[in-house]
Structures are given as structure tokens and as C-alpha cells.
Amino acid sequence: MAKYERIADDLRVRIQAGEWQPGDRLPTETPDLTTHYKTSLNTVRQALGVLAAEGVVDKVHGRGNFVRKPRKRVVRTSERHQWEKDRARESEATRRQTGATEHDTGLAVSDLVFDAAFDDAVSADEVLAGLFQIPVGTRLLERTYRTRYREEDEPFNVARSYLVYDTVEGNPDLLDPSKEPWPGGTQNQLHTLGIELGRIEERVTARPPTAEESEELGLKAGDSVLILWKISYDIDGRVAEASNVTLPGDRTEIVFTTPLTRW
Description:
By secondary structure, the protein is an alpha+beta fold. The chain folds into two domains: 3-67, Winged helix-like DNA-binding domain superfamily/Winged helix DNA-binding domain (Arc Repressor Mutant, subunit A, Orthogonal Bundle), CATH 1.10.10.10; 74-255, Chorismate lyase, CATH 3.40.1410. The protein has helices spanning 3-16, 29-37, 41-54, 80-87, 92-95, 100-105, 126-132, 165-168, 185-192, 211-217, and strands at 57-60, 64-67, 74-77, 112-123, 139-149, 155-164, 197-207, 225-234, 239-248, 252-255. The protein has a six-stranded antiparallel β-sheet with strand order 4-5-6-9-8-7. It has a two-stranded antiparallel sheet with strand order 1-2. The protein has a two-stranded parallel ribbon with strand order 3-10. α1 (3-16) packs across α3 (41-54) and α2 (29-37) crosses α3 (41-54). The longest helix is centred in the N-terminal third of the chain and has 14 residues, at 3-16. The radius of gyration is 23 Å and the shape is elongated.
């Protein structure tokens, strides 16, 4: 094992033992760590680079190396969709109390910062046209959502939701991003249009993030992103809404629960 790897192992053990707490600054690279480990500055930086790649420490330019604060975990279960449907017809006061992000994180509405951007002039490409069974070029409403924990800088994910414009214009409020976050979420929005969902299909793949995704989602070297397509079908089997969600792999757990019929 190389010396920088031994140093990284020792620092990792000391952090795990609580010698430094999340948010604490580590001893300086020089003279503190170079003297303690009797090695060169380059070797110390290699060791810290290993820990930074693992997400154990953050290097802040001009300030030093800090123990990384654990990011709020997101647990996305298959039960969330029925939970949302059960709430879709509740009173507005009830729907305002909590939403899907709060359900997945255990946070309160006051803990979150929401951002919504709408584009009502998106043309369906081949993928979306195939999902909705509409001609390529059909006008869509694209809604981009970013929600973050108030104590963090990065959003939990980036979600792009697509609705057929001709369907949505039946309720002009659905075209207004200032109405977001919408109490009761998409299922209540569809309910205002007389649409009831019958099933939701989710397709998940993983890949390395782009540079832009790494920066926006706060990812480290070696982290992946999960790409989730959520396709919502109405009770007649037609696609009512489709979402493409980019989730950071280091903080997202996806749980599928499948009830089984007894013999």
C-alpha cells in the first residue's frame, strides 16, 4: 500500500471515530499533516484527494479541508404514488401540510426551498411522442422542478415533467409557475382536469453524470446519477404525464415494494 493510501486510511479512521465532526476543519496540510505523518506536501494532498473523491472531506479553496456534512438522504418508495393519490381529493388545507418531497425526506414544508420553471412551447420529440402516442412536434408543457433542503446548496434532484398542452390549458392555473409548489402535486392537478391515474410505471437506469450535473447536484468523483422515467397512466390506459428525473446516486435510495398474493 502506498504511503498516501495509508495516510488516507488513518485520517478516515480518525474521522469515523469522531476526532473531527462534520463541518470541522482538518489540520493544515503544512505544517500540521506533513509533520505528523513525516511526509511531503504532495503525499498529503494525494491522501486528501482520496478522501475528497470518496465524499469524506471537502476542500475549500483558500480555507482548507473540512469533514463533509452528510447530505439529507432521500428514500423514494413505490408506496409514494398511492399516498399521493389518497391526498389528491383532500381539502387544500390538508394538501398544503406536506408533499412528496417531505414524504421522501421526513422534512417539513418550512425546511424546503422550491424552484419551478415552465416552458409552454416545447415540441414533443420522438421519445415523448411515443410515450403520449401523439405526433412528433405536438405542443407540450415542460415543467422543471428543483427542491432543496434549506441547509444545503444543491437540490435533491432535477425533475422535468411533461404534459400535453391541449389538455393542461383546461385549467390556466396549471400554466402558472407562481402556483407552485402545488398542494397535492401532479395527481391533484390532473384531478382538476377530470383525470384519475390508474397506474404509474417507473424505469430506472444509472450513468456517470455530466459536468453540469456534477456541479448542480454536488457530486464527487465516482458518484453516479440515477435517471428515472416516471410515466403516469390514467384509468383508461392513456399516458397523462411523463417525468424525467435526474437523481444523485450518493443520496438517493429507491425502494420497490411488490405485494404478493398468497397461495
